[in-house]
Structure formats: C-alpha cells, structure tokens
Input
Amino acid sequence: MTRTIYKYRFAKHVPMKDVEDALDLAALAAESLHGGVEFRMNAHIRLDKKEHICTIDAGNPVGLHIAKIFTGFLIAAFGNMAFETMVTEEQRRFATSVCLLWVML
Output
C-alpha cells in the first residue's frame, strides 16, 4: 500500500515562523473539519525550520486537506515563487504493535 507525501521546500528568505503559523492554521482547519480523534490518528506533519522543509502525509483525507489548505495559505502569504512542492509516493510502513495479555487469576 502506498501513501502520497507532499514535501515543501521554502526559499531562504521565507520566515519559518510564518510558515509554522500557516501550518498550525491549516491543521486547526482540518481538525475542525474531521474531528479531534480522526485528526490525531491521521495527521502526520513534520516541519524542519533549519532546513526550510515541511512534509505532510496526504495518504488520507485529513492529510490531504491539511496539504490543500496549507498550500493555499502559502500562496496567499508568500506567492508561488517562495516555495516548491514535490509529490512522492512511499510504501506505507506499519508500526509493529505490542500486544499485552493480562491473565486474571
């Protein structure tokens, strides 16, 4: 199973605090749309201020909405030339889970 990943690379002149604020607002909008539980389970976002990179897993509706809203905010705030967006598809990796068995005596 694959997932779609959006990777945003920002020009060095773009203030990353403003990018972080836009990402927070996009996440809040997506959480309002999908609800807190679904947001917590499906929103996978990473912001690297030092490298000027943001990564959003858009392999589900929550992530896709975050990416769409975030992109709209970025264009409105900085214009099309302030960042580039790369789309990749990655193999989904499932985390191993630990199952605890409780034995009642």
